[in-house]
Specification:
Elements (H helix, E strand, L loop, with lengths): L3 E5 L5 H13 L10 E10 L13 E14 L3 H15 L5 E9 L13 E8 L4 E7 L16 H19 L4 E5 L2 E5 L6 E5 L7 E7 L2 H12 L6 E8 L3 H11 L3 E11 L3 H8 L4 E10 L14 E9 L2 E8 L6 H12 L3 E3 L7
Antiparallel strand pairs: 1-15, 1-16, 2-12, 2-13, 3-11, 3-12, 4-5, 4-11, 5-6, 6-10, 7-8, 9-10, 13-14, 14-15
């Protein structure tokens, strides 16, 4: 989410892949051999029952998560999330966890938020020894650490991020103090029993904090306050990881979601990706990293490339495969990036950031 991401504008043919391979070879780079082993990521694969996961039995799977989706939810989030917490207590196993997401609105008029989206997201989660409430913000653009093109707006950006976190803290009544120190938004709590984490505070992009305690009922109340600010019917998602089939079936029958999806990591060979994509079609998305290079080897005369990397990957859905390019920072001025990437791979590309949530 903190990366800069581009995609090829059209689905790739075998000839397009050969073009990319030839152009990279001329630049002294290379795509991996078909027998290369890698980890592919499956997302948004819609399934009717947990047994559908057996279609991927030929490969080793990790981080298998079932997502139960409640479309156009208008009910009491406290009761829904509380139902998941009660079932988690009945079905939990070592290492399993459950979380439930819901949008919430930042305080004030939407027009008062110029650099952040006025609609943010929360997750309430349940683990073996504790519960957590996570709040994530999304900005209107992504500028990664190390890029300087928005330095003239840093003061405004920090002030708005501080206000956004203060909004979430005030609505949920969490015991958190928010301030700005040394160019970062800082969050602190005086509760000794609580663990407070903050991710990506210095990035002009998604940022989140997570408040952890061992009292899930306390967090259910706070999460309900945030969820109640959502101005419209919401899509609520519950994430179930580490449960056996019997437990998943109990969640399915008890919570009655509108739809269910699966996400997981798949250990496979590069030449097995087409087969994997067919198995999760038409709705499932597939991501895989093919190789990565430091941009200094591609732009030797540009000093800003020393710590910039480009990741070549593929993304597939509905049988169509596109080239994916991710960079931890833009090594060139914004106006030159599309042209440089198109020259590098020999294909038209478009800037295509991934959504920050849920």
């Amino acid at each position: 989410m903190r990366e800069r991401r581009w995609e090829s504008q059209a689905a790739l043919t075998d000839g397009d892949w050969r073009t990319v391979g030839d152009r990279l070879a001329r630049a002294g780079l290379a795509l991996p051999a078909p027998s290369k082993e890698l980890i592919a990521y499956v997302e948004e694969w819609m399934i009717d029952t947990p047994d559908a996961i057996d279609r991927l039995a030929a490969w080793h799977l990790e981080d298998v998560t079932i997502i139960q989706i409640h479309d156009a939810w208008r009910g009491d989030f406290y009761l829904l999330a509380g139902g998941y917490q009660a079932l988690y207590r009945q079905c939990r196993a070592h290492g399993s966890y459950c979380s439930v997401s819901h949008p919430f609105a930042l305080n004030g008029e939407p027009s008062s938020w110029r650099l952040h989206q006025p609609l943010a997201f929360l997750w309430i989660g349940f683990r073996d020894t504790h519960a957590f409430l996570r709040v994530r913000l999304q900005t209107t653009e992504v500028i990664t650490p190390g890029e300087t093109r928005a330095d003239d707006r840093r003061g405004e950006w920090l002030d708005e991020r501080r206000r956004a976190f203060e909004s979430a803290v005030a609505t949920s009544e969490l015991p958190i103090d928010v301030g700005v120190e040394r160019g970062r938004v800082m969050l602190r709590t005086d509760r000794r029993e609580a663990a407070l984490l903050c991710s990506w505070p210095d990035a002009f992009g998604p940022c989140q904090f997570e408040y952890n305690i061992n009292d899930p009922l306390d967090l259910l109340v706070r999460a309900g306050r945030l969820a109640a600010t959502s101005p419209q019917a919401a899509q609520v998602r519950a994430y179930l990881t580490g449960f056996d089939r019997r437990a998943l079936e109990q969640f399915q029958s008890t919570m009655a979601p509108s739809r269910s999806a699966c996400r997981c990591s798949v250990h496979c060979r590069l030449d097995e990706l087409p087969q994997l994509l067919r198995l999760i079609s038409p709705d499932g998305r597939l991501y895989a990293t093919l190789c990565e290079f430091q941009t200094a080897s591609l732009l030797p005369d540009v000093p800003e490339t020393d710590n910039a990397w480009v990741i070549f990957g593929m993304t597939g859905q509905e049988g169509n495969v596109r080239l994916e390019l991710r960079l931890n920072r833009a090594p060139l001025p914004e106006a030159r990036m599309d042209g440089w990437l198109e020259e590098l791979v020999g294909l038209p590309v478009v800037y295509a950031p991934l959504p920050a949530f849920p």
